[in-house]
Write a structure and sequence with these properties.
single chain; about 600 residues; mainly beta; Immunoglobulin-like; six-stranded mixed sheet; five-stranded antiparallel sheet; 7 helices; 34 strands; about 15% helix; elongated
Length: about 600
């Protein structure tokens, strides 16, 4: 055989050997793995009992199948496809069963792979318990492994000679203590256990008297069968700074006695005759701002009180209209736990601090409101709301009558008879009455709405005022509308007006030289026969201040600026004998001075307010 043929043969033979060594399925496809093998059981399973907490602790060593790793199918070839691999950690979780007092096993828990212990805190004194642990991968479970049996002993019978619930201790004074004692006896055959499961509030202490030691939260004590322990819950005023107040403490004990696992005492104690706590108060409940013009401002003082024996800090929150502002030497800014800036004031024990409240109106005739909320930092339950109210404009103390009107000056070219220019003369009075009637007819209004105030020479200049109609005469033209109508006549047909006046008065008046009008407010002060101001004539009816005025005043008594029942007409006095935005006894005393007086100019006022 030649060398060339030998080489080809060798190559073919090598390929044949390589192909023959690889496993091949009948259809030449890879076979996927199926897990039908149960995990290995756990080992080293044991159980132990904690009689104090009635808890069983179960421990074990992991199943041999509970370990990370990879195995392969397909002849063990490490080069096989990844599609032919399965995880060798063949445990997903452990099933925990409990056998309680020899009954059938019941599942109590499942824990994840890698876990080696479990605490069963559902045990009770007198129980016997053993445990089963089963490793599982889901479809397959390992063999069952059972632990030793643990016994939680005979049950105790813990008897508290102080009934659970609320207990009120006797009051204590300065540096004094008070308390309540109780005994816990174990009348059962098994050991009893008792734990203080609550915090100890300020001012209180609790002692076990036999061992003479103080309990703290979490202290655990055991009581042998037929044994007992003595306890004392104390409250001492010195532990809370001797501050007068009622203090509450809740003491919770947990036990291992079935049916009496939790015992709670709610204890209250009161300190009397010690130091008065900080106590927030204020002078009054509101500030009202009146008689403040648009370009002005007014500052009043809010007084914050501390009528207690400890210092306090109070936060001030101002809400409402922005025309109010607070300031003062006693105010400072602090930051709370949330980094919020707060406006605050410190008030030492049994003293006061002042806060300046400034009102600066920004709209003519505007009414404003605000609120200052005062919260004591040292006593979270103490919060006071203080009302602010203000109005723009000036006020007068004597309650004058005010009526809007239009004043007209009519200039005629001719002079009337000289006697007419003499105020109060028969000729003057007759001319006034006749001219008023003629003018009213031209404007289409009632003559009572016209008040002729002057007739002056230099030609003839007649000055008169047109009043608004009574409120119930809704169809009558207003003073402004009537004035406009007269101005239109003068502009379009002045001779009509002159003729009407001449026919009515019998005087020759010439022509209209000019007409001028101006919106005004007529102010008339009610007076008595001696010229003294009367402020309490509220009804403007009759001629005397009588019971009708009293009843109206009584309805408004106690009201303040900003309240629906408040009306400035009843605010006729104040601490400085000027209106202050509150209807109170200052106003009543002023009203009492006016009661029964006769209003000398009642008719003149009623002509304005009632339309004649």
């Amino acid at each position: 055989m030649s060398r060339g043929k030998k080489g080809v043969f060798a190559s073919v033979a090598a390929v044949a050997l390589m192909v023959g060594s690889a496993p091949v399925s009948a259809d030449h496809h890879l076979i996927g793995a199926v897990d039908n093998i149960a995990p290995e059981p756990v080992t080293g399973l044991s159980a132990s009992a904690d009689l104090l907490t009635s808890t069983a602790t179960v421990t074990w060593t992991l199943s041999a199948s509970d370990a990370p790793g990879v195995s392969y199918t397909g002849g063990g070839n490490a080069n096989a496809s990844a599609a032919n691999t399965i995880a060798s950690n063949d445990v997903t979780e452990y099933i925990i069963n409990a056998i309680i007092n020899s009954a059938a096993a019941v599942e109590v828990a499942r824990v994840p792979a890698g876990t080696t212990s479990y605490d069963d805190d559902a045990a009770e004194a007198g129980d016997t318990r053993s445990y089963q642990v089963i490793a599982t991968d889901g479809p397959n479970n390992s063999a069952v492994v059972t632990s030793n049996t643990v016994t939680f002993g005979d049950p105790p019978n813990l008897v508290f000679d102080l009934a659970p619930g609320t207990h009120v201790l006797s009051p204590v004074g300065l540096d004094e203590c008070t308390g309540i004692d109780f005994e816990v006896t174990n009348e059962g055959a098994g050991d009893g256990f008792l734990t203080l499961a609550s915090d100890i509030p300020p001012g209180f202490e609790i002692y076990e008297l036999r061992g003479d030691f103080e309990l703290s939260p979490g202290t655990q004590l055991s009581i042998d069968s037929e044994g007992f322990l003595d306890f004392s819950i104390l409250f001492c005023a010195s532990l809370v700074g001797n501050v007068n107040r009622t203090y509450e403490g809740i003491f919770t004990f947990t036990t291992n006695q079935v049916g009496n696992e939790v015992v709670v005492y709610e204890v209250t104690a009161t300190v009397e005759g010690g130091v008065a706590p900080a106590q927030l108060d204020v002078v009054g409940d509101r500030l009202t701002f009146v008689d403040v013009p648009l370009d002005g401002s007014l500052t009043q003082t809010l007084t914050v009180l501390n009528v207690g024996g400890l210092d306090l800090t109070a936060d001030l929150a101002l809400t409402g209209d922005s025309v109010f502002d607070i300031s003062g030497a006693d105010i400072f800014t602090r930051t709370d736990d949330d980094d919020n800036e707060l406006t605050s004031v410190n008030v030492t024990a049994n003293s006061s601090a002042t806060v300046d409240v400034t009102f600066t109106p920004d709209v003519s005739d505007g009414e404003y409101s605000g609120l200052i909320t005062i919260t004591s930092v040292d006593d979270p339950a103490a919060q006071i709301s203080f009302t602010l109210a203000g109005t723009e404009g000036t006020v007068t103390p004597d309650n004058p009558v005010e009526a809007p009107a239009v004043e007209i000056t009519l200039t005629l070219s001719a002079d009337v008879a000289p006697e007419i220019f003499v105020a109060g003369s028969p000729e003057n009075l007759a001319f006034v009455e006749l001219a008023r009637t003629a003018l009213a007819a031209q404007m289409g209004i009632d003559p009572s709405r016209i008040i002729i105030t002057a007739i002056e020479a230099g030609s003839t200049e007649v000055t008169f005022q047109i009043l608004d109609p009574p409120e119930d005469d809704v169809d009558a033209p207003s003073a402004a509308e009537a004035a406009t109508a007269l101005e239109t006549i003068v502009a379009d047909e002045p001779e009509v007006l002159v003729t009407a006046l001449e026919d009515a008065t019998g005087e020759e008046l010439g022509v209209v030289d000019a007409i001028a009008s101006e919106a005004i407010v007529i102010v008339i002060q009610p007076i008595d026969s001696e010229g003294g101001a009367i402020a309490g004539w509220f009804t403007r009816a009759g001629t005397r201040v009588d019971l009708d005025d009293f009843f109206e005043f009584a309805d408004a008594f106690g009201s303040s600026l900003g309240e629906p029942s408040f009306a400035s007409v009843f605010d006729i006095s104040g601490s400085d004998l000027v209106p202050d935005g509150v209807v109170n006894f200052d106003d009543f005393f002023r009203f009492a001075d006016d009661f029964g007086k006769t209003v000398a100019n009642a008719a003149e006022i009623q002509a304005i307010t009632l339309g004649g």
